[in-house]
Write a structure and sequence with these properties.
With about 325 residues, the protein is of the alpha+beta class. It is about 45% helix and about 10% strand.
Length: about 325
């Protein structure tokens, strides 16, 4: 769902495309996906109108990354230049870009069979290998933001506040309360027992930053295209690996990780990039930490009971937390 409603109508889009890109549009179809307002133009182009907080620097970064990766055997979108040789325009204080339309199909989270799951690992492995030759990206203080003791402590405060303000006039209130209680207890245990300095020993390098099945467009004849590089940064790649696995494998739908499939997923990625002992041992732990500190889904549903899909995603992640916590605590990796 887009963050902001569109400022454009069909007439404005047609005029904009003809004036700025020399494109005469016939069919304009909105696509309800992602945080931008997206339009399919004649099955030839995609127009994106971003929210006001999207900065031109992020567009330029994404374009530079896409141009680099296109030469590295990674299928990526192609930005269309304006008549004035720019890759974006600004209208109503919002950035607009046009890309070539990518013919293909997408699949939902946790609907991938074994073949699709391993294909995802192959694409990620090739991406990580290619990114080694790209200039070092900013880490954006990601360890402090997602994997630190402060992050867990802040998450505890948010969960306690949400629990205090929980709306009990809905059918999921008791389940939400139980989920929050479990996440609170797991967070406390992590704070008391885990050595956060271990995370600094894990492999940090350039990566997509939001790699998952949601960023893949499949085409059985032309191959799979990887999209949306706005979040690209330097970060612990073990997190990207396990998270992307958990979003595609149909066996992980209920938040239960198939250890055999996960092992094969890691092995496939490791054909292209080296991982160290800390990556392999603590991948689940840093994923657990990042999920524990987030109240995404619960907060949105508490504010608006129409947000069922987001709530189901929150349930999925909390089930993942429970299962990872059980496995890693049993193996003493949380101590």
């Amino acid at each position: 769902m887009a963050i902001q409603e569109s400022n454009l109508n069909d007439i404005e889009i047609r005029n904009l495309l003809e004036k700025e890109y020399n494109i005469k549009a016939k069919n304009i179809r909105p696509i309800n996906k992602g945080t931008a307002n997206i339009y399919n133009i004649d099955n030839k182009y995609i127009l994106k109108e971003f929210s006001e907080d999207r900065k031109k620097e992020s567009i330029l970064k994404e374009i530079d990354i896409i141009n680099f990766l296109s030469k590295k055997d990674i299928k990526v979108p192609k930005y269309i230049e304006t008549i004035s040789k720019q890759f974006y325009i600004i209208k109503y204080n919002r950035i607009i870009i046009v890309q070539e339309y990518i013919a293909g199909y997408t699949i939902e989270n946790n609907t991938g069979d074994y073949e699709k799951t391993i294909e995802s690992a192959t694409i990620l492995g090739k991406l990580l290998k290619a990114f080694k030759e790209y200039k070092e990206l900013d880490d954006e203080r990601i360890i402090e933001k997602w994997f630190s003791k402060d992050y867990i402590q802040n998450g505890l405060k948010k969960m306690k506040k949400l629990k205090k303000n929980l709306n009990y006039n809905n059918k999921f209130s008791k389940k939400i309360e139980k989920d929050l209680d479990d996440k609170i207890e797991m967070s406390k245990y992590i704070l008391e027992n885990f050595d956060f300095s271990i995370i600094n020993k894990m492999t940090m390098q350039n990566t997509h930053g939001d790699y998952s099945v949601q960023q893949l467009i499949y085409n059985d004849e032309k191959g799979t295209t990887l999209i949306d590089f706005e979040t690209a940064k330097k970060m612990p790649i073990a997190w990207e690996i396990i998270r992307s696995y958990s979003y595609i494998d149909k066996d992980a739908k209920e938040g239960i990780i198939n250890e055999y499939a996960l092992e094969d997923y890691f092995k496939e990625v490791m054909k292209y990039v080296k991982l160290n002992e800390y990556d392999l041992k603590y991948a689940k732990v840093i994923y657990l930490i990042q999920m524990l500190g987030s109240i995404y889904g619960y907060k949105q549903y508490n504010e608006n009971v129409e947000n069922i899909e987001i709530l189901e995603f929150a349930f999925f992640r909390t089930n993942l937390c429970r299962n990872i916590f059980k496995i890693k605590n049993k193996s003493n990796d949380l101590k």
